Amino acid sequence: MSVRQPSAYRPTKPDIAVFVSGVTSMGLEILAGRIIAPQFGSSIYTWGSIITVFLTALSLGYWQGGKQAGEASNRRMCWLMLGTAGYVAIVVYGSDQLLLSASALPLPARYASLPAVLVLFGPPTYLLGFISPYAAELSAKEGTGEASGHVYALGTIGSIVGAGATTYFLIPALGIDAIGLLFGFVLVGTALALTLPTLAPTPAAASVAIALVLVVAAGIGPVAFDHRGDVVYQTQTAYQELEVIDNGDERTLYLDGARHSAMDLDDPERHVFEYTRYFHIPMLMVDDPAEVENVLFIGGGGYTGPKDYERTYDVDVDVAELDPEVSQAAKDYFRLEESENMTVHTKDGRQFLRETDKNYDMIVLDAYQKDQVPVHLTQVGFMELAADRLTDDGVFLANVISAPSGAGSDFYRAQYKTIDEAFASTYSYRTSDWGSVQNIEVVATKADTDFTEADLAERNERRDLGLDLRTEIDASLDPPKTDDVPVLTADHAPVENLQASTIGQEYVIERTGEEETTPEPASIAVGSERYDRARPAPTLEFESSIPGPRPLGSAPA
């Protein structure tokens, strides 16, 4: 029996079409995560929607393509490729506006991204599904089994190439528009190749027209009004979309569309967001601030906390930041400078804690993907690891985005319960008088402590910390009810389900120096209100006439 040598294989036109359809379908699926994430996050529900839509669309395409396979031809596949390329141009141009419109639909958080994924990626994936049965029909292989196996193998190889190239090369190197343009050109080029050597006038003219549409769509960019300000820098990192935006004299870091850090360009030492002031509360809980030597921040962002600690105290600051592009942006745009006292480690926080032999007097957890703490940093195993890396009187602080009570508080209460499982004493502080989603600072001590507000107020008077924390101390919360929420473990950490309770809530980030805070809809909870319709905070005079979450206690200061 003779064995065909690999060099003897010459791909046919249908083979090329199948391979390219595999490359583009899987490449678009990976790219979909980046397009959808800024509006809907990158939770398991978002990726579940993407995978469900792509598999459903491909299956329908396979089915319809099989039914019509008797009419298969290279010319038909050419038109399928051109149709897909044309729709990619629509995705490049209209994705942002469509995402904003889809986010206004009153759907539960777990299903919120499904309509957008369906409209953006269902049609092109459906068209690509026709290619495989057409190619099998046109295959020169003997027998249905051999033809099918050949097509499956080529399509799968194409998918492997598409997934690998998009993940490891295209997204780190190019923007979303450029990647869409590249996929569109590959489809147009393949369509033309299918008509060779005789170039029919109609497909040729359509190819030129669609190529021009792709160039125009990528050149104009997505159509959507950006209310945030002037984009100073934008890139797609290996982990997220990163934007630096200036609005007047304030510069803000956005990761996947969510605000992560802000800096006053005229007064870089000012805390723009109130919650970063709470990072200093642990200094009231240690026995002696002068004995604090080593501090670890897990999550860098714009490095507001780490820079503040290095500037205010005589301490060595380590920062574990997974995304090197975030650290580089902090250096380029947020005045981060590494020094003998400031060391940046490009590593996952949990991995860093496992590998380090250093003990810390303080650990601050401020790591987020959009508005979600990475699941492995919410679990009791991580909390126990953090406690093990603290000195005997060490203090742990976790920045948690959730509501302090009632609707939307499930994640906070579960995180509090989990932290309390690993530490001797646990405290928490709200950062806004609003009852809606906000930054809640959960502080835990390794030693058994029983601090009262009076104790901390007295220490605040005696200790020269560089800022007055009386307001922050007064924002302490009573221990929450945790009977109905789980301890988050490696085996069971339903973070997405817990955060789904924030539906309809608004995300309040208090800003320093403002008399009134304007909430914006929580990006972890998609409701009917969106960024351009954020409801202003009510004052005491007319709060009772406005429905929705209301301030607890006095009006925001």
UniProtKB/TrEMBL annotation:
State any single GO MF term. Answer: thermospermine synthase activity
> What Pfam families does the record point to?
Spermine_synth
The similarity annotation says: Belongs to the spermidine/spermine synthase family.
Task: Please indicate which superkingdom the organism of origin belongs to.
Answer: Archaea
Any one Gene Ontology BP term: polyamine biosynthetic process
Q: Which residues cross the membrane?
A: 16-37, 44-63, 79-99, 111-131, 151-171, 178-199, 205-225
Region (Disordered) residue ranges read 509-557
- Name under which the protein is recorded: Spermidine synthase
- Spell out the NCBIfam families in the cross-references: MFS_SpdSyn (NF037959)
UniProt keyword list: Membrane, Polyamine biosynthesis, Transferase, Transmembrane, Transmembrane helix
What CDD domains is this protein classified in?
Answer: AdoMet_MTases
